[in-house]
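Give me structure tokens for this 296-residue protein.
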Amino acid sequence: MRRRVGLTIVVALAAAGWIATAPQPLGADEVARRPGDAARGERIFHVGGCASCHAAKGAKGADRIRLGGGAALVTQFGTFQPPNISPGPDGIGGWSLADFDNAMRRGISPDGRHYYPAFPYTSYARMTAADVADLLAYLQTLPAVAGKTPENQVGFPFSIRRGIGLWKRFYLASAPVAALPATASPAARAGQYLVEGPGHCGECHTPRTPFGGTDRTRWLAGAPDPEGKGKVPGLTSATLEWSAGDIAEYLKTGFTPDYDSVGGSMVEVQANMAELPQADRDAISAYLKAVPPQPK
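Here you go.
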């Protein structure tokens, strides 16, 4: 009798775990119902920094839109390979909008597997369905690139992708992170969407918990470099003393107020930001001045 009860409990727990870790795709009504606009999608492409990860390392000019996969991201959890996202058969050429949206906002592959959160879908989850559709429309205009990237190198227990489903229950959310003051300007609120959503700035500039999720109680406070190469600075007014104009100018030109120039991994980010309309750079800087300050 006891053995039967114990077996029942084990089966029940296993079933509960299987349900808790299952992928949770978007509903049909959550995916955009109109075709994307490629012209609008180009802006989202630059905000999201797609070329920084999915183009070849050091790519310049036209090579920045050849998205056959970029340099490996080496972390404490394993080595992750940014995949080919060009519109060819080795990339996302056969994907539907629902496939793409589930990848972007839910971290789910077309074959129903969890993506590793080295792909910053925890930020992209805050994007609108329309922006996701526009981004896909733009990606479909880019050159097809042949070739698959190498497999990720992830050891046990992180190699069990199903477990990411439980992780997502703690770290995947579509709600805004920062509580802006009631007096925050429309520009700051527009910047919140860009920074917290497609811009995914918090993925590098926010400390992480021992489980690898961003610590939202220390939003944009600065963090160790995810590849172990020093520190990523804080972006709130407690540590970044630049004016809103200084921040916007840095994003446009790469020059700091004291005439230093952008360096490290921020070189790629700044190159993307320089492609944006000035209103977007102003919005990002307004948000960073409005977000609650975080000490180092």
